[in-house]
Design goal:
The protein has eleven helices and five strands, in the order E-E-H-E-H-H-E-E-H-H-H-H-H-H-H-H. The chain has 254 residues and is mostly helical. The longest helix has 21 residues. Keywords: DNA-binding, Transcription, Transcription regulation.
């Protein structure tokens, strides 16, 4: 089976057939079990997540009814997949079956390849990680608790692996190719200095030095206006390198 959380929750069986999880609380329940695989989660902990910290009276009985439908659906493929196991329930999930696990493993691989300076491998591995990302994680899972505790960490990982892929593209001399994406990224993440620095580098290497300097001025003004700070050392170093005409390359610490 395949379980996907990097976007709307999706479940497919061994034949690739989609297994719908229609109830909102059932989606929260299944997502919670998927994020804590292969170990029993207590009824109390599940109830806290399913009802966003305000479980109703008699929640243990209600929770059992919420478990029944996904349990029956999963039992079609594997009778032992979702089990009652003290003090609650456990869902058996192999690493390759869950997109979050594959994404995290690829992010780790890309970081190791980056430290080794194997840029072609970094570009390939990072792209494979990013291809798993369909939309905001847990998009149709209505849980503020999961949104606060899980989504920010995954989004931070995505930004890090995206940075690594773009650094690899720049190291490989693909400056023209990344300019449009970086222009979009600085618009979406205006306070993310790394993307500004990467855009400046790509513009400079494509003969667009004036535009690269304009990116710095815009980023500096935004940082001062929004955060009251000057650009960090990396962005300042790239700016100085463009002014002095030095050969530009990122030397980011591992």
């Amino acid at each position: 089976m395949q379980f996907r959380l990097l976007g709307p929750l999706e479940v497919t069986d061994a034949t690739g057939r989609w297994q719908p999880v229609t109830g909102p609380r059932q989606r929260v329940l299944l997502a919670t079990l998927l994020l804590n695989p292969n170990r029993p989660i207590s009824v109390d902990e599940l109830a806290e997540t399913v009802w966003d910290g305000v479980p109703p009276k008699g929640y243990a009985q209600t929770l059992r009814s919420h478990v029944m439908r996904p349990r029956r659906s999963l039992q079609t493929s594997d009778p032992l997949r979702l089990q009652a196991r003290a003090p609650g329930y456990a869902l058996e999930v192999a690493d390759h079956e869950l997109d979050v696990h594959r994404f995290e493993a690829l992010c780790r691989d890309a970081a190791e390849q980056r430290r080794a300076g194997v840029w072609m491998a970094v570009a390939d591995t990072a792209e494979r990680a990013l291809s798993l990302w369909r939309a905001q994680p847990l998009l149709d899972v209505p849980s503020q608790l999961l949104s606060r505790t899980v989504v920010p960490r995954l989004e931070q990982l995505r930004l890090q692996v995206l940075e690594s892929r773009l650094d690899a593209e720049l190291r490989l001399g693909r400056h023209h190719a990344v300019v449009p994406q970086l222009q979009s990224l600085v618009a979406v993440h205006p306070l993310h200095e790394r993307f500004h620095a990467q855009l400046m580098l790509s513009l400079s290497h494509t003969g667009r030095r004036v535009e690269a300097l304009a990116v710095y001025r815009s980023a500096r003004r935004l940082l001062i206006d929004e955060l009251g700070v000057e650009p960090g050392p990396e962005l300042a170093r790239v700016h100085q390198s463009i002014l002095s005409g030095d050969d530009l390359v990122f030397e980011r610490a591992a």
